[in-house]
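Protein entry
_____________
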Amino acid sequence: MAFIHTYIHIFTSKKSGIQQRRAQLQVSACLSGFKPLVSWQGSTKSCSWVSKLTEARQVVDSLKSEAANQEQRLAEKQAKANSALQMITETMRSANSHKTEMESLKEHTEKENQQLVVRKRAIDEELAEIEPLIREATAAVGNIKSESLSEIRSMRAPPEVIRDILEGVLRLMGILDTSWNSMKIFLAKRGVKEDIRSFDARQISRESRLAVEKLLQEKGESFDPKTARRASTAAAPLAAWVMANVQYSHVLEKISPLEQEQSKLQHNLMMAKNQIVQLSSGLSDVDRTVAKLKDQLNTYTREAAEIEIHLNRAQETINAAEGLVEKLNDEYNRWKTQVIS
């Protein structure tokens, strides 16, 4: 009987120590029903002990199950937080890398374009020197009298100087037939002077220019102003026109690749600028995405911290409850031993 009173005293003190824990209260609630059942009827008392200990163990098992669920939730929140942090890092790294690449492309394109501008400026200076010659020669062709052309056309056997000059004119204008008959047909065309005056040197093919350059090297004397003027008053302006257009075509050939390259670079520069504009606009989306991810990260981190706090408390409750159940189980075993003995 003294043992029972001693046990009740111990149980009461243990009960007051775990009232702050819900699970411990559940354990205590399971065991508190033991006191009214204390009697000398061994079978009834034994059943009560077993029943209450079983209920207490079930409560502890329930706590452990809940703790396991909390651990799983904690792992999920931590995984989501890590994923959000990784996405923030990757998003910002990708945006910065793309921005750096675009700025580098723009800078490189601008440098190349500046170099082309310098080269093109030198060629433009050459063109500026030749253009007055073109205008002068074109004006001189316009001043040729129709009678002078008719005089040349009426010749049965023209001087070599006139043939050389007309060959240069025909070749530059893309006429491959340089026979005397072809030359007379050309001179007989209505508006022939205007055709020559309005001719664009950009239409001169490389092959034609090279052929005329060879002609100028071999028959340079024929294109001398004095020599041409002695042959015919119409020959000298045509000779000047041939030489000026050959020079102009040569410079245009040098500038053509530069113009194409510059056009390509300008296109690339425009593309780079457009991409940078789009990137700048996209950075706003990146900022919004990062802000959203940061909110998610904060939420997941906060929730994980709360779960961890609850989990720690639950573990404390489990440890306390298990300790109490273990003590009660020991008491029960000692009681059985005393009863049997």
User: Anything to note?
Assistant: The longest helix spans residues 235-340. Residues 111-286 form a domain with the Histone Acetyltransferase; Chain A fold (CATH 1.20.920.60). Residues 46 and 203 are 119 Å apart (CA to CA). The two ends are 15 Å apart (CA to CA).
